[in-house]
Write a structure and sequence with these properties.
With 184 residues, the chain is mostly beta strands. Strands 1, 4, 5, 8, 9, 10, 11 and 12 form an 8-stranded antiparallel beta sheet that branches. It has a two-stranded antiparallel ribbon with strand order 2-3. The chain is globular and about 30 Å long.
């Protein structure tokens, strides 16, 4: 490249005459607004339904459709209104690449029993306490649990006339519950 073909107004006179300087190539209108209220330099967290659980953090887990919270109440898992009794804080852990959720009050792990109903009774994370979290394009996440070689959604099933939190197959279009995770 020959310097005699360049506009002399773009070249600044420095000690090194081989470097060309010009105005900033990015106009101010293109400043990234995607980050919203998140300031990655100052470490502030996003306040967005797109937050996904990460090991080492504690979360409140909320059903998007009902607004109810995943709650451990008297040893049972229920969806309860915010402000109700029960324990709503879940510490995210990781074992062998799988996520797990430990209730911070009971110290027990979210999992399922032999019928696929959600429980909170295991003291250590094994196969029935393993979770995969998948983000949805519309926002929120689905919780998935293993069922043999498949992943089943966490949702609601009716058992003896009662709604129960359980792992549910996705036959019949049942995509389970969409969840939001709020870091505390």
């Amino acid at each position: 490249m020959s310097l005699n073909l360049l506009d002399p107004g773009l070249v600044q006179n420095n000690r090194d005459d081989s470097t060309v300087y010009s105005e900033a190539a990015t106009p101010p209108e293109s400043i990234d607004t995607f980050l919203g209220d998140r300031d990655t330099l100052n470490g502030t967290e996003p306040s967005s339904p797109f937050l996904v659980p990460w090991p080492g953090s504690t979360f409140i887990i909320r059903s998007v459709s009902s607004g109810k919270l995943l709650t451990l109440l008297d040893g049972q898992l229920v969806l309860a209104q915010p402000g109700s009794q029960g324990s709503i804080h879940w510490a995210c852990i990781e074992t062998k690449g799988w996520l797990g959720f430990r209730n911070v009050v009971s110290g027990r792990l979210l999992g399922h029993d032999a019928k696929g109903n959600l429980t909170c009774s295991a003291s250590r994370q094994q196969g029935w306490e393993n979770f995969c979290v998948r983000m949805r394009p519309e926002g929120g996440c689905v919780l998935l649990m293993t069922h043999y070689e498949r992943l089943w959604h966490v949702g609601i099933k009716v058992e003896q006339g009662q709604d129960r939190l359980a792992k549910v197959g996705n036959e019949g279009g049942n995509d389970g519950i969409v969840w939001e995770f709020s870091k505390i």
